[in-house]
User: Fold this.
Amino acid sequence: MENKRILSIPGYGYMYETHSHSKESSACARDSAVDMAKAHKTAGYTGMILTNHNWGGNTSVSRELSWSDFLDAFFEPYYLAKRWGDDNDFQVFPGYEAGYNGTEFLIYGLDIKWMHDHPEIRDASVEEQFEIVHAGGGIVVHAHPFREAFYIKEIRLYPEYIDAVEGVNAAHCPYNGLPDNTDFNVKALDYAQRLGKVITGGSDIHNVNLIGGGMAFPRKLKNINDFVSVLKCAGADDYRVTDGTRVWDACGGRL
Assistant:
């Protein structure tokens, strides 16, 4: 598969997709986690974070399962993709997208074994989520905070309960038949700068037609905890964010 939108960013040669879904755990996705990993590898990415919709979002995993069984089924596609990635020099990291009546957050850095021991996160409020995720060593990123869509009844902001803002969501860009909703990103970038929060970027992809967004780093990341550590203390030049055609620094400055 060819993707001509991937940018080569001088000095930042390691590209990661930070917002991706697969059909095994996200009901709105069309392709498997392994196929998503293969497509990213072909497109030139170093790695990807699989962020399927959790129990509060559009999950395809039964909510009737016990907490342990739910987590096993939910993260199974991650393990399958990671196994493929380990054999093919491609990194796959775990994460998830938490849903609260249409408001969504990207959760990075929670150990899956730790999650098994902390079922309280399943019924946590947005405010409680922030405390629980931090207790587990993770971070909370507000995903596409200004998106307007049928499933989002209202835009709700939680500036005190996030660590970063997804300032660049490539799914808002006019590509491959998608409408031009780049204004959602303009608002998100302005919001992040007003809060003094670093930004993230991802394609929010649900199939192998890659949109070409993500985050580029000057070195290969070690694991998801390394990714989290960078975000926690990032300066403007620690990474770059792209929608596939334009580039921003970690603090939302257009380059």
About this structure: The chain has a mean pLDDT of 95. The chain has six helices and ten strands. The domain at 14-249 is CATH 3.20.20.140 (TIM Barrel).
